[in-house]
Fold DUF1707 domain-containing protein.
Amino acid sequence: MDEEQPAHRTAAPDGSDGVVTPDMRASDADRAAVMQILEQAVGQGMLTLDEYSERADVALAARTRGELDTVIADLPHVRRQVVPAAAPEEVRSWMSSITRKGQWTVPPHLRITTRMCSTTLDFTAAVVPGPVVRIDVDDYCSSTDMILPDGATADLNGVHHLGSSMSVKVPTAPTPAGLHVVVTGRVRFGSLTVRHPFGATLRRFLR
């Protein structure tokens, strides 16, 4: 009689001592923990921004623990040092307007929940915490305008939209010296625009 073979197991993405099977479903907390690992790896020079962008897309779309584990399999040192992800800073608004501009301090992870609102996030003079900023959007019947400084890039692959318009007027591939904004979440019957300031293209041409 054949002996029963133990299930292949992989380390939990949050760095704990517990183990999980690769086919177990991944939760939002699991994906957030892996995103934090990737952000730490960028900060420590283990990943380039291009590598971060590719892995972040995989992590955000992952459905199982095994898929998440492949994203960080070659980052053992970072995995052991990971700490619980800090809760994102939250902004909620209903039938009003939200504006952030000038020298405002951008949190590493921002969550925006809007209902029938107008939101403007101007990053051109903002104080940013590092090379990558994550923004979660939960929008219904609202307009959201993100203005990035010259040279900044954005990834909107993690945004699900229904009956909405999405316009990305900045490069999507991250650059070594520029800010990279990763936007995730959902937009329903609204609009999301990510752009450089008006006239940025002309200014680059005249240099």
Q: What stands out?
A: The mean pLDDT is 83. The chain has two domains: 10-81, 89-206. Helices lie at 28-43, 49-61, 65-72, 76-81, 200-206.
